[in-house]
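TL;DR need structure tokens for one chain.
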Amino acid sequence: MIKIFHFADLHLDSPFSGGDIKRSEAGRRRLRELFCAMMRHVRETGYDLVLVAGDLYDCGFVTEETAELVCREFSSLPCPVVISPGNHDPYSKGSLYTCGKFSDNVHIFSSEKLERFDFDRLGVSVYGYAFTDNTLRANPVAETYVADPKRINILCAHTDVASPLSPYAPMTYADIEAAGFSYAALGHIHKAPEVFRSDSCVCAYSGFGEGRAFDEVGQGGAMAVSLFETGKRASVSLERLSFSKYSFEVEAIDVSYIGSDADIEKKIKAVIKEKNYNKNTALRVVLEGMTDVGYIPNAELIAKKCIAEVDFIEIKDKTLPLLDGNFLEEDITVRGELYRALKEKMTSGNERERSLAGTALRIGLAALEGRDLSPFMPKDDTAARSEETNLDGSEA
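>> reply
TL;DR here they are.
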């Protein structure tokens, strides 16, 4: 049996620019600690091979602290490490991959063409390639047949199997199978799809190591791979492992007919308790449903009341005003005209149109009743755009 540790998309030194300096550094520190935990597991478990399927770093240039940490941890392993540079950390002049600081047990693909590393003691050949820029539009395994019947043939690749037009080394599971690989250790797709299995080939994405923003929810992971030689092809057994302590989570909460911030706060805290969220959780709460036309949740205040329960919380208000159709539809006053003018957008428009129409109705009715308009006024465009930025600086 051959034991392989497969991971990808750790994105060390991510900027986490959507948060303040303290939170950004905390995010980068968590990723370094996660990497160390993975390498400690490799040492203690006794793997035969480590495969890194791209985007170990978030960009081609990393801090000296991170570079030294990675080189030190890899050198401490009693087994070979194979790296397939991805679109975020391409093999390019000046990158860590070309600096020559890695120990002899680290093997790095350096060409966009398919390359091969042989490990005779294991009877294994690992094939792969490198991004040398931020895109790679060719299919590196197309019309290739690599199977050596005397060896176990493995692909370590950063690739997009979801789209044939992808600029990120597009290929299909059929391409990989036809090339003769027993196992393909893949990276690039952060939300790992189901494992592909055929009679002769297994393809798996390890997924992200640890979430960096709200588009990477839940626990990250890596793959523990066991290969058993069974005649012409190896039999492959997989176990998904998680090393992340911190997670990003998104909860949609229906607050229909709730008319106070205090009651919404109680409902959010109940969800936090039920899901066991804690100080290792960044939580986005999406308020949904229909609330009284005269009430709009104070998202900022509610978040301040709930922050003690988690490490970070943001609240997005997607509620709409409760529509009393029987009353407003037949109202012959300006109130009715306003409702009828906005009804279609509130019920059949896209999300942004529904939100704007709901806000317009609330403001209009408040104005007609002589009430304070400030609670219903939308934030300016700059604030709205900043709300859509994740903690790693990417767009939500």
